[in-house]
């Protein structure tokens, strides 16, 4: 194969390998569908590294072949003024130290020789730089392929809370509340912790005079909802057993940003505060006072005050209201709707991946009355009961729920010591967060209707008029209606892919592209020069036919003369 053909072959090969490296760097496009690579976090990087190394080798061979062609075109032209040092500067046998010596070290060298040496040095640096660029900012990401044969399915989004739904939990409110208190927002099946590592590690320093300032208590969570609530039919579907993911590409959920509130804020004792208590065998257990108000647009502030032990031992928490205004634990929360792509593990339900969409966050309108109405329903608020039943005996004023007593016993009274105790602070702060988040999440229309088919082992449950079992029709008719289905979801398969950052990938393309274009331009110029007469009417080609061995070409074609033009070495092919 003529050398000129080899040069163009190397240019085409380099271009192709660079393009393949770019495709692999933008989501492992080349290996998509290959199970061995898709299921491994290491193989996508290995494949990208292998292709980029091959591209580097091809680019290095292209540059060397181009310099070899340029060298002979320059040296062999008629009336060429090329010196032996020019030849050395262009020859691939001259190493980096020799090129540095020719470019900057020696004195008395021509500018042309120095420029040739500098060009060779720069072209040598291109190869490692391109390899570093494409691998410098690489991220291994998880991606999903939806099951193509599954029928289209729509699940549910989270909606604004409906406090009247709380009656559906009335018979098991203690179980719901005590099971979720403190850890509600840390359940990976329903929420994602968005707090930074620094925020999670910082000590939440609550104090009586925080005045709403951030004191290390900032925490942020996104509630996407449990798959059993959002996609109940898929949970009950045994089809496509190899699909290990339930994937929702556009799910609307709640983002909740918590901070320490102003511990000195005063709440309206009638409209914004409730006192909750419990009864044990006629004994009036301790009580807690929950106050919820607005601290700003779409922002709630809540305070939890515990009845002091000195009052509780006298069973006077309901009659003695002096403790209602005690400085105590306070938290505030703005809430937003946000859209997210989310993936659940089909085997055990946790959220394994999420990515927010470009849709803007929408403020969630929450009123304190909705939160308090929820707990009034679940805990039978004592003050509300007195207001509506003036003639009722005092014993009837206590809730049958035990959660109020549980909350009173588990949440310590605010004190200087407790306000600096990390264990106490984390526990109380998590409980306050949960008390605000639980109504938002659980008071959703149609929650019980979604779960009922799972409980009875069916994909759907209809009312009697639609042919359902008569035993369930009355129960179904009392439940809140289902909301509109707006969230597409499907079974999916996960894969791992490698993604290089856009700036470094652009730099890689530009640098490699410039190198390949320069090589192509040099080959065109040499080919054009080789087709011209060598000078003085001589029609011989200016560039000789070269072999694959540069050292052999030196002895075959070169004549070396001294400064007096006396021949010191003559090639055997002249």
Helix-strand layout with pairing:
Blueprint: H1 3-25, H2 35-38, H3 43-75, H4 84-90, H5 96-105, H6 111-136, E1 138-146, E2 154-155, H7 173-180, E3 191-193, H8 197-201, E4 219-223, H9 227-230, H10 232-235, E5 245-260, E6 273-280, E7 283-296, E8 299-306, H11 309-312, E9 329-345, E10 351-356, E11 362-363, H12 368-379, H13 382-388, H14 403-410, H15 422-442, H16 447-456, H17 470-478, E12 487-488, E13 490-500, H18 502-530, H19 550-557, E14 560-561, E15 567-569
Antiparallel strand pairs: 1-13, 2-12, 3-4, 4-5, 5-9, 5-13, 6-7, 7-8, 8-9, 9-10, 9-11, 14-15
Helix pairs in contact: 1-3, 1-18, 3-6, 3-18, 4-6, 5-6, 6-18
Note the overall shape: elongated
Could you tell me the strand content as a percent range?
Answer: 15-25%
Structure class: alpha+beta
Distance between the termini: 22 Å
The largest pleated sheet is described as:
11 strands, antiparallel
**Count of individual helical segments:** 19
What is the average of the pLDDT values?
Answer: 79
Indicate how many domains the architecture comprises: 2
- Care to count the β-strands? 15
């Amino acid at each position: 194969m003529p050398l000129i053909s080899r040069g163009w072959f190397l240019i085409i090969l380099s271009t192709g390998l660079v393009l393949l490296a770019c495709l692999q760097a933008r989501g492992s496009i080349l290996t998509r569908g290959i199970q061995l690579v898709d299921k491994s976090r290491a193989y996508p990087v290995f494949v990208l590294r292998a292709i980029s190394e091959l591209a580097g080798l091809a680019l290095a061979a292209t540059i060397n072949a181009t310099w070899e062609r340029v060298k002979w075109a320059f040296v062999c032209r008629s009336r060429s003024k090329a010196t032996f040092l020019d030849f050395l500067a262009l020859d691939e046998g001259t190493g980096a130290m020799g090129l540095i010596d020719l470019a900057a070290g020696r004195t008395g060298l021509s500018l042309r020789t120095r420029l040739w040496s500098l060009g060779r040095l720069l072209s040598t640096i291109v190869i490692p730089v391109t390899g570093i660029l494409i691998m410098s900012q690489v991220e291994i990401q998880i991606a999903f392929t939806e099951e193509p044969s599954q029928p289209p399915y729509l699940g549910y989004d989270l909606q604004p809370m409906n406090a009247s739904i709380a009656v559906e939990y009335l018979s098991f409110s203690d179980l719901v509340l005590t099971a979720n208190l403190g850890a509600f927002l840390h359940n990976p099946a329903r929420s994602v912790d968005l707090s930074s590592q620094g925020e999670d590690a910082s000590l939440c320093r609550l104090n009586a005079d925080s005045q709403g300032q951030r004191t290390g208590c900032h925490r942020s969570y996104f509630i996407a909802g449990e798959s059993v609530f959002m996609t109940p039919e898929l949970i009950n579907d045994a089809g496509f057993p190899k699909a290990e993911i339930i994937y929702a590409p556009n799910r609307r959920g709640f983002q909740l940003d918590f901070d320490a509130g102003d511990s000195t804020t005063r709440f309206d004792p009638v409209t914004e505060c409730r006192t909750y208590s419990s009864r044990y065998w006629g004994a009036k257990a301790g009580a807690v006072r929950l106050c919820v108000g607005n601290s700003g647009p779409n922002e709630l502030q809540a305070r939890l005050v515990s009845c002091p032990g000195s009052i509780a031992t006298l069973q006077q928490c309901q009659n003695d209201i002096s403790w209602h205004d005690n400085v105590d634990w306070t938290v505030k929360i703005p809430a937003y709707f946000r859209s997210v792509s989310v993936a659940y593990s089909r085997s055990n339900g946790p959220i394994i991946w999420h990515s927010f969409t470009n849709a803007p966050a929408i403020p969630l309108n929450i009123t304190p009355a909705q939160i308090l109405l929820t707990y009034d329903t679940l805990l039978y608020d004592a003050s509300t009961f007195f207001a509506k039943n003036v003639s009722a005996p005092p014993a009837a004023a206590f809730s049958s729920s035990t959660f109020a007593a549980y909350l009173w016993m588990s949440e310590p009274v605010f004190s200087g010591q407790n306000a600096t105790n990390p264990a106490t602070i984390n526990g109380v702060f998590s409980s306050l967060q949960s008390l605000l988040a639980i109504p938002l999440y659980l008071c959703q229309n149609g929650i019980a209707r979604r779960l009922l088919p799972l409980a009875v082992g069916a994909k759907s449950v209809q009312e009697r008029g639609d042919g359902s079992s008569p035993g369930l029709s009355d129960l179904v008719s009392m439940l809140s209606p289902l909301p509109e289905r707006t969230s597409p979801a499907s079974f999916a398969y996960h894969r791992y892919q490698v993604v290089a950052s856009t700036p470094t990938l652009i730099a890689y393309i530009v640098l490699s592209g410039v190198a390949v274009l320069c090589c192509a331009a040099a080959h065109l110029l040499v080919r054009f020069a080789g087709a011209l007469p060598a000078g003085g009417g001589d029609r011989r080609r200016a560039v000789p036919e070269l072999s694959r061995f540069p050292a052999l070409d030196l002895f075959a074609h070169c004549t070396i003369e001294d400064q007096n033009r006396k021949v010191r070495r003559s090639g055997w092919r002249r």
